[in-house]
Specification:
Elements: E1 2-5, H1 6-11, H2 13-21, E2 26-30, E3 35-40, H3 71-77
Amino acid sequence: MVKVSIFEAKTNLSALVKQAQRGEAVVITSGRSRTPVARLEAIQPVQKKRLGAMETPGFVLTEAFFAPLPEEELRQWDGGGQ
C-alpha cells in the first residue's frame, strides 16, 4: 500500500493513477499525523452483455427483429396452423 500526502497526490497524480490501475492500494493522507482521508482505486470495466451463451462475431440485431410477425406465422405460434 502506498501512502501519500495531499500535496504529493496533486504533484504525482498521473503516476498514482497508473499504480491504482495495476491494483496497488493508494491512500491519501492529510495533516502532520498523516490521517488517511481518501483512497484511490481503479474502476473495474463494465462487462458487455451478450445475446445467448456464446458470442457470435458479426451478429447484428436489426430493427427487422422488432417488426410484427406476419399473420400466418402468428397463427402457427398460437397453434392455429396445424
